[in-house]
């Protein structure tokens, strides 16, 4: 059950970061003609995509995102910066971001399946 939860959390995390505007209502983009449907990312691909996005946002390459770096490069992280920065250091790591969105995905899964033990 834990690998399945981690897989779900990884995919939810990447979906938030790749879209950049997870909650915004926008007209759906029109698919390119003859575009083949994309398969969902597996957890390994999702983690690699997140690491790539984080590295691009971490402009000073210190392994952490400041509020300004998050605002410029990872808008969904910026929206939740204060919730993610539980230590109130003014910077957050990949691990903190992953833990926050994994917990959020777990809460969502529990809300959708209240009879579950996890």
UniProtKB/TrEMBL annotation:
<dbReference type="InterPro" id="IPR011992">
    <property type="entry name" value="EF-hand-dom_pair"/>
</dbReference>
<feature type="compositionally biased region" description="Basic and acidic residues">
    <location>
        <begin position="59"/>
        <end position="70"/>
    </location>
</feature>
<feature type="signal peptide">
    <location>
        <begin position="1"/>
        <end position="24"/>
    </location>
</feature>
<keyword id="KW-0732">Signal</keyword>
<dbReference type="GO" id="GO:0005509">
    <property type="term" value="F:calcium ion binding"/>
</dbReference>
<feature type="region of interest" description="Disordered">
    <location>
        <begin position="23"/>
        <end position="71"/>
    </location>
</feature>
<feature type="domain" description="EF-hand">
    <location>
        <begin position="45"/>
        <end position="80"/>
    </location>
</feature>
<protein>
    <recommendedName>
        <fullName>EF-hand domain-containing protein</fullName>
    </recommendedName>
</protein>
<dbReference type="InterPro" id="IPR002048">
    <property type="entry name" value="EF_hand_dom"/>
</dbReference>
């Amino acid at each position: 059950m834990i690998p399945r939860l981690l897989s779900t959390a990884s995919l939810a995390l990447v979906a938030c970061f790749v879209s950049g505007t997870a909650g915004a209502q926008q007209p759906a983009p029109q698919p390119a003609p003859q575009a083949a449907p994309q398969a969902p990312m597996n957890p390994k691909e999702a983690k690699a995509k997140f690491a790539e996005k984080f590295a691009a946002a971490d402009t000073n390459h210190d392994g952490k995102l400041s509020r300004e770096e998050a605002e410029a490069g990872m808008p969904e992280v910026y929206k939740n910066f204060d919730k993610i920065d539980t230590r109130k250091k003014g910077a957050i790591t990949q691990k903190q971001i992953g833990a926050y969105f994994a917990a959020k995905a777990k809460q969502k899964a529990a809300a959708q399946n209240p009879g579950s033990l996890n």
